[in-house]
Amino acid sequence: MIEREQVLHVARLSRLRLSEDEIDILTGELASILDHVDKLAEVDIEGVEPTSHVVPLENVLRADEPRPSLDREVALSQAPDPHDGAFRVPSPQAEA
Amino acid sequence: MAVNELLAASGAETAAMIDSGEVDAGEVLDFWLDRVAADELNGYLWKADRESARAGIRGSGGPLAGVPVAIKDIFCTEGVPTTAASRILDGYIPPYTSTSVSRLTEAGLPMLGKTNMDEFAMGSSNENSAYGPSLNPWDRGRVPGGSSGGSAAVVAGGLAPWALGTDTGGSIRQPAGFCGIVGLKPTYGAISRYGMIAFASSLDQCGPLTRDVTDSALLLATLQGRDEMDSTSVGIEGGIVSPTAERLDGLTFGVPRGLIGAGIESGVLARFEDTLIRIAELGGTIVDIELPHAGHAISAYYVLAPAEASTNLSRYDGVRYGLRSSDEDLLSMYEVTREDGFGPEVKRRIMLGTYALSSGYYDAYYGRAQRVRTRIVEDFDNAFGSVDFVVTPTSPTVAFKLGEKTKDPWTMYQSDLFTVPMSLAGIPAISIPAGLAEPDGGGPELPVGFQIAAPAFAEQKLLEAAFALEAAIEFDGSPALEGGVN
Predict the structure, then answer these.
(1) Residue B339 contacts A, CB cutoff 8 Å
(2) Among A86, B122, B197, B326, which is most buried by a count of CB atoms within 10 Å?
(3) What are the boundaries of each domain within chain B?
(4) Bridge partners, B136 (sequence order)
C-alpha cells in the first residue's frame, strides 16, 4: 500500500511539483495500480534471469572516426534561455 | 480520372496509377492536401503547406514515389514542429530528422502532416493528447484507439493513403483494429528508433498503418534495416517483398484460449471465431495452445514501461528545449516546468516508474517484472516450437465511447490485454480487420481486429499469412471513408 508520504517522496524524485488535488488522486490511483501489479508475486521466478532486451546483441561497435556534430547555434536554437553559447539556468542556490 | 478513385486506392494502387501516367504525383498530392485541410477528425496536429510538400516529390523513380504519407507526431522531423502531443514540447522544432522519416523521404513519399496521438504515446484512446482526442471515423462519438490514434483515424477516414505509427504495448495494432485498417508492429530491432521520441526504449518500435497488407509490406520494406544511429537496430535478413500467398496449407495457428476469456465482448469473440473458420477453409490448422504467463503481461508491462518512461522523460527539464515555466531557482524551475508541461497520464506513469525504480522497491517491482518478462518470452518460444503463428482478437472490445474509460486507469490498460504479451516478447504482430460487430450493450456495428503474431524476424511469413486471410475476409472499409456509420 502506498501512502501519501511516499507519493510526496516519489514526486520529489520525479521533479514534479504536484498540486494537493493531484497528490490525493495519485495516491489512490497508484495504490490501485500497484494492487494489480502485486499479482506478479504469483509467478514463480526462482532462478529466472531478467530480460532487459529481447534481441541478442553484444558489443555493437562502429569505427571511432571523428565527424561533425550539430553546430552550436543549431543545438542552442531550441533552448528557452541560450546565453553566450551555453544553456543558461536559474541559480541552484535555493536548492540547498 | 475520378477523384474518389484516389480516395479508395491503396498506397500500392496509387503508386501504380502514378507509374502508368494515369495521374501525376502533383495531382495526387493536391488531392490529399485538400482532404487534410478539411480534417474533421482532429487527426492532424500539423499540416504540411503545399509548397514544402511538393518539394517532397522527388524524381527518385522508386516504386512508392509520389504517394503521400502521414507521420505520427513522435518522429523528429527537421524544421517541422514535433510535440509528441505534449505541452512540454509545444513549439519544439527538431534540428534533425528521424531515420524512418528520412527513409520515406528518400523513397519519394511527400509528408502530408503530423498526426495526433496520446501524449508521449501513453494511452489507448488518444484522449491523453494535450490537443484533444482524434475521433474514430466510423463513429465520431468513439475513440480511434491509441496511442497512434491519429494515424489510424486519418488512414481509415480518408485523410491519408497510409501512415507511420509506433507501438510500445499495442499502439499500432489496437487503433488499427478500432478503425478497421491494417497495423503492423515489426520485431523489435527491425526498424531504427533514431529520432523517434522515446517512451519505453526496450519496447518501442515503428511500424505502418495501412489500408491493406500489401501496403504494410511495402512500407516495412522501405523502413527496415540496420542503422548505425541505433545500435539496437538489426534489420530483417533478406528484406521484405510484396506477399502473394493465397492459401494457408501446412501452417498451424495457435489459439491461447486461456488468455481469451473474461472481459471480451461477444461480438468480438464471434468475429474471431469466424476468422478461425476462414483459416481452416484456406487449409490452415487451428490448435489450442497455452501461454501460461501471458495473463501477467499487463502487470509486468505497467512496471517496465513506466520505469523506462520515467528515466526517458527526465530529459524534459526546461534546459535545452521545450517549455520552461519558472525562473525562481533551479529545482523549482524543473518541478514547475514538468508540472505544467506533462498531462495526467504521463505524470501517473512517471510516478509509477520512479516508485518501481526507487530504493527499496527496485527488486520487488522492476526486478520481478523483468523476470516475468523472461517467462513470457519463454511461453512464446515454447508455443512456436509447435505452431507457426499465435492468433488472438486484437482488443477485447470494439472502439469505446469518448470518456467511457477515462475514470479508472487500470480499466483503460486492459485494452492492450492481447497486444502487450507480443511487445514484451519483442515479436512481430499484425492486426487485420476481421469484420464488424456491435459493442456489448448495443450500438452501431464497428470494426474488429484479428491479431496474428509470428517468431522474431518472421515478418515475411507473417505478411504472407495475413495477405491470404485478408483476401478471404473481404473486409469493406468504405463506410469510414464516406463519413462513418453513426
Answers:
(1) yes
(2) B122
(3) 3-249+408-434+457-481, 299-365
(4) B139
The runs of H, that is alpha helices, within A1-96 are 4-13, 20-37, 72-76
Contact A75 B95 (CB under 8 A): yes
The reply to whether A62 falls in a domain is no
Instruction: Give the model's pLDDT for residue B261.
Output: 83
The pLDDT tens digits of the residues spanning A33-44 come to 999 999 999 999
Coil, strand or helix at B15: helix
b/e A37-49 (16+ beta carbons within 10 angstroms → b): beebeebebeebe
Q: Do A94 and B188 touch (CB under 8 A)?
A: no
The verdict on B323 touching A (C-beta cutoff 8 Å) is yes
Residue A22 belongs to some domain of the structure: yes
Residues 441-460 of B with CB under 8 A from A: 456
**pLDDT tens digits along B287-300:** 999 999 999 999 99
Q: In CATH, which superfamily holds the domain spanning B3-249+408-434+457-481?
A: Amidase signature (AS) domain (3.90.1300.10)
Chain centre to alpha carbon of residue A32 = 22
Structural domain contains residue A12 = yes
Domains of chain A: total = 1
Question: For chain A, what is the radius of gyration of the CA atoms?
Answer: 22
| pLDDT for position B396 | 97
| B202 in contact with chain A, both atoms CB, cutoff 8 A | yes
Residue A51 within any structural domain of the chain: no
Residue B60: per-residue pLDDT: 61
Residue A28, domain CATH: 1.10.20.60
Contact yes or no for A90 and B327 at CB 8 A:
yes
CB proximity A45 to B under 8 Å: yes
pLDDT score recorded for residue B55:
83
